[in-house]
């Protein structure tokens, strides 16, 4: 009888556990700046920009005002492809910092340029070299790709020129928000579409853009390490292994590399020589 009572008590206990209220886990909140929005497309049509998933909004990826210790004047843009951030310098030792994705060509240029052109929902065309070497992938876009959420440049693009010549270095949006904060396989400097729209609205043609070298990045940001997820963080106080990302390899101090952002051709010239291109080569962006 006592055994039956014991079994009954256990059964009632299990039933009580089974009838407990379900636990609801809190859903991470997406900041207003990164929520979905409707933008005006290249032909005046509405384009829906999805919200950025909370999982992609790491502390370093989110747009935020920070202290700035660089020498650049307010109004300048500073790109640090090694720390994977972009600064819009403000007065009073402050800057607005944006997280960026860095493509293979994102470390192919360093120096000071100016924004010579701005485009909302820019079109894009692969270069002749891309079409010739990978026709199965790029021949279908030989006539160009119109602006929109299907376009690799995303919602906005800034085109950098140095000495009146196109550097083929672009700051633009992205179709892949999961790439922000990481080193990716192609492209130059990419931001969340929401962030490039914000940056685009605050700068004009003629704005100075300084792209840091690896040595400058170390001077102002300190050493960085790569996390298992592919992001970078300041090395101080971290127990993670040093980054081995190939795109972070230092460039030769004797040359300045200028690269078409969607091609594999890299042009190296002496620092004191004018920027030239290998013919025939077209801009990846029309």
UniProtKB/TrEMBL annotation:
<keyword id="KW-0573">Peptidoglycan synthesis</keyword>
<dbReference type="InterPro" id="IPR038063">
    <property type="entry name" value="Transpep_catalytic_dom"/>
</dbReference>
<keyword id="KW-0732">Signal</keyword>
<feature type="active site" description="Nucleophile">
    <location>
        <position position="188"/>
    </location>
</feature>
<protein>
    <submittedName>
        <fullName>L,D-transpeptidase</fullName>
    </submittedName>
</protein>
<keyword id="KW-0378">Hydrolase</keyword>
<keyword id="KW-0133">Cell shape</keyword>
<dbReference type="InterPro" id="IPR050979">
    <property type="entry name" value="LD-transpeptidase"/>
</dbReference>
<keyword id="KW-0961">Cell wall biogenesis/degradation</keyword>
<keyword id="KW-0328">Glycosyltransferase</keyword>
<dbReference type="InterPro" id="IPR005490">
    <property type="entry name" value="LD_TPept_cat_dom"/>
</dbReference>
<comment type="pathway">
    <text>Cell wall biogenesis; peptidoglycan biosynthesis.</text>
</comment>
<feature type="signal peptide">
    <location>
        <begin position="1"/>
        <end position="26"/>
    </location>
</feature>
<keyword id="KW-0808">Transferase</keyword>
<feature type="domain" description="L,D-TPase catalytic">
    <location>
        <begin position="75"/>
        <end position="212"/>
    </location>
</feature>
<feature type="active site" description="Proton donor/acceptor">
    <location>
        <position position="172"/>
    </location>
</feature>
<dbReference type="Pfam" id="PF03734">
    <property type="entry name" value="YkuD"/>
</dbReference>
<comment type="similarity">
    <text>Belongs to the YkuD family.</text>
</comment>
